[in-house]
Amino acid sequence: MKLQIQWEFDLPEEESHDQFARENGVPTMVDTQDFLDDPEQSSFDKIVEMLSEEYGWLIQYINIVDEVVKT
Fold first, then answer.
1. Which residues have CB under 8 Å from 2's CB, separation 6+?
2. What is the mean pLDDT of residues 28-46?
């Protein structure tokens, strides 16, 4: 599952979220399969907690970009 993340950076209005993320090595897009063996079986809360711990920032919101469809 691929996620687009908006981090809680607490930036001045004129500073770009994505630029700040890039400059500080914090991704705005992640593939949960890079972190979890079976992300589709993980709770959303577990994924949010794992990403916050990995990158050291709280998450403002997450947008699911690509979800695995089980057949």
1. 29, 30, 31, 32, 64, 65, 66
2. 88
pTM: 0.80
Range of the domain at 52: 2-66
- On whether residue 31 sits in a domain, the answer given is yes
In a domain, 54, yes or no: yes
Residue 60 lies in a domain: yes
Sheet holding 2-7, edge to edge: 29-31, 2-7, 59-66
Domain count, the chain: 1
Strand partners, 4: 29, 63
What one-character-per-residue DSSP string does 19-33 give? Answer: HHHHHTT--SEEEGG
**Torsion angle in degrees (nearest 10) through CA of 7, 10, 15, 18:** -10
